[in-house]
Amino acid sequence: MSSHAIPIISISHLFKSYGDKRVLNDINLEIYPGQIIGYIGPNGAGKSTTVKILTGLIPDFEGEVRVMGMDLRTDALDIKRVLGYIPENAEIYDVLTPLEYLLFTGKLYDLSDTVIRDRAERMLSAFGLGENLNQRMDTFSKGMKQKVLITSGLMHNPSIIVLDEPLSGLDANAVIVMKEIMSRLSKEGKTIFYCSHMMDVVEKVSDRIILINNGIIVANGTFEELKQNSGDSLEKIFAHLTGETNLENVADQFINAIES
Question: Considering the entire predicted model, what is its pTM?
Fold first, then answer.
């Protein structure tokens, strides 16, 4: 990756604790423009904490985080302008219509009403929600709300996109569309930081996979590189590196308990 001399995201010696529980333990990462990074790990490994620090939602941490050369501690607002964030479960204001919600979030990025209306209409129509633009979202399914969140996170055309389980609640066709969108955005030079439990998707879309366990990075490389050490599928690599190699036994115990 030396051709891109300057990383777009640089994390060095990142630590985070809650009380006496250390959640992130000396995380060091360099991410370059146009990469799709698959960031994976078991529940409680520190994935969401990393994402919340990166997006400026958790301001107190030890270490240094730089985004496009800017220091997250001093330039958080400028960094938020170039970031798009799509969380798994956002508190979406569901008394609003998608258009009202996007007018509200789009203004945070200084987009004009005209641009917001135009993009919202075209993006939501592409997602099959053209008819629902002015419908209150309290009647929407989880997948429909997720499409509005995805639109909201991408509408300002950010350089860096942080996705935390973005496919949650989407049907199979929408997942295919979303994978294609990610791949197109990275070809345009956008950087995508993608957290997920969906190993098959991570395996297919990521240029680089980073596995975190107990707040420590235990693997960082391409899928091919990871495969050489630990197994032939990302699921097996994941199980091997997180020390969960007897998962069939767990399933046996569970089934035996039902049947006994």
Answer: 0.86
Low-confidence ranges of the chain (pLDDT < 50): 1-4
- Cβ(29)–Cβ(9) below 8 Å: yes
Model confidence pLDDT, tens digit, residues 51-68: 999 999 999 999 999 999
CB 30 within 8 A of CB 9: yes
DSSP 115-138: HHHHHHHHHHHHTT-GGGTTS-GG
Instruction: Give the strand order in the sheet containing 62-67.
Output: 21-31, 9-18, 62-67, 70-71
Tokens for 239? 């199980």
Query: What is the chain's percent helix, strand, coil content, to nearest 5?
Result: 45, 25, 35
Q: List, in order of start, the domains of the chain with CATH numbers.
A: 9-259 (3.40.50.300)
H helix runs in the chain, sequence order: 47-54, 76-82, 98-108, 113-126, 142-154, 172-187, 199-205, 223-230, 234-241, 247-259
- Quick: pLDDT tens for 15-32: 999 999 999 999 999 999
Strands 83-86 and 216-221: unpaired
DSSP assignment letter at 254: H
- Helix or strand (DSSP H, E) at 164: strand 160-164
- Provide CB contacts within 8 A for 225, sequence distance 6+: none
Q: How many other β-carbons are positioned within 10 Å of the β-carbon of residue 56?
A: 18
